[in-house]
Every structure is written in structure tokens, then in C-alpha cells.
Amino acid sequence: MFTFSFKAIGTQWEIETYEPLVRRQQQRILRRIEEFDTTYSRFRPDSLVSRIAAAPDGGCFDFPDDSLALFDLYDLLHRATAGAVDPLVGRDLELLGYDRTYSLTPAPNLVREEYARGRASWSKDIIRDGTSLVTRRPLAIDVGAAGKGYLVDIVSDILREAGFNQFVVDGSGDLRHSGESSIRVGLEHPFDPQLAIGVANLQDCALCASAITRRAWGDGLHHVLDARTGVPVRNVVATWVVADETAIADGLATALFFTRADHLAEVFRFSYVRMFADGRAEISQNFDGKLFS
Q: What's the CA gap between 141 and 52, in Å, rounded?
């Protein structure tokens, strides 16, 4: 098994293939990830979303073709969660300290309260025409809920185009498996990385996980916010979702912090495990795996 390891978009990646990835193929993947980052990263000043955040009167901004499926997914997630999942949650994250400089220092309450009175929403502050977004004021877009999973799908497509049929793309826990033989993946305990609460059997599909402990700072501050309130979620502490596409698994892993699984199942096909703050865990009947007692 050949392993290509690298750092990108602020995290560790690993690609496993049966045949080696030659340098030309590796460079194509890295260039494609860089293109994605220069479009969607709110942590780099030269990105498209940073231009949107800095535009005093808004404007019309053209995204690449790959944005169409990503924005369509966000439309679905936004509606299915009644606005809890929203790409415009970026400003709330910044005000809690998860900003471009990683200050991890929340803004004063008065500043946060003032923003809350005019909080931006994907459904009312964005006009979308295909791959173009029209804004009327500075808006902080954050595609963290589904963006990394979508990028894993893009990398997987590159591998298939290059003739690879059996592989695993691991974007720091967002997994896409391709092949006829399944793999077993441990479900990491959110409060102890040395433990697993269960195992998933993954075969030719994607698995994504989200936990409030992954990016946490301060007292009760973490990256999973209810976009309607700007407040970090407390009831659910971790989620795992299996779906055909990594972007969908990634987005639903966030959506399950706010919304019942049966409601999401009206729109999406998936299986899941969810862990609550009181230690309870629930597993869907169609989840290919098990929880440890």
C-alpha cells in the first residue's frame, strides 16, 4: 500500500493507494487543493471569501464551477436545519475568537450583541445566481460544515480520472473509501483519543465525524455553532455519518448537532451515530458497524 501524506488547508491529509502516486499526480492534487483554498479559506487574505468579507458595500462575486454543487448542498442543509447550518456563520466564529489570526479571544459582549441584532443569514443576505453570489454588505463565509468533505470528493474524482479504483482519502477524519473490500474504522471517543466508542465498516462510501472537542478553546467555546444564535451547541458532543458522498456526510455530521435524524432523512440518505453530553449514544438501524457497551 502506497501512502501520500501532506498538510493542506490547515490539517493533515493521507491518501492510500495500491499503486504509487507519481509526482505529477501528487502535484495535480496539491494544486487543486490550493485552488480550493484560495477560493474558500477565510483564514487567508488573498481568498475570494476574504474579498467578500472586506467589500464595504458588497458586490457580485463569481465562484468557480465546483461551487455549484457545494452551494446547492448548503441550500438543502440550511432549509433542513431551519437555518442552524449556514455558511454565513463566519462572523460569529470570528467574534468568538476563531478568527484569521486564531486569537481565541472572544469579542466583548456588547460587540457580539450588536452583531446579533443584524445577524447575516444565507437565505436573506445572499442572492445566488448559479455560481455567482450577490451581496449588499461585508459577509464572512465559512464553508467548514461541508467544505472539507467536498474537497475530499474532488480529490477522489482526480484519483478515479487517473485510473485508481481502490483508495482511501483521509482529510483529517473525513474519509472516502473506494474499492471492493471494506475497511474497519474506529469511532474515536470525543473526550479520549485513545479510546473508541464503536467501529464502522466502510465500503465504497464516505465517513465523516464532528466533535465539539476538535477545535475548542475557553469555557464552552468550540467551532460548532448554531448559526441562528451564534452560540456553541451543548447537547450533542459528537457525530459520525456515512453517506455516498463525503460532502453530504460532512454536512450531515454538523446538521445532526441541531436537527433530528428522521427529519434529515426526508432529504438525505445516510446512516449515523450520535453521542450526547450525558454520555448516551444513538445508532441508526442501517449503520454498518456497532457501538461498544
A: 8
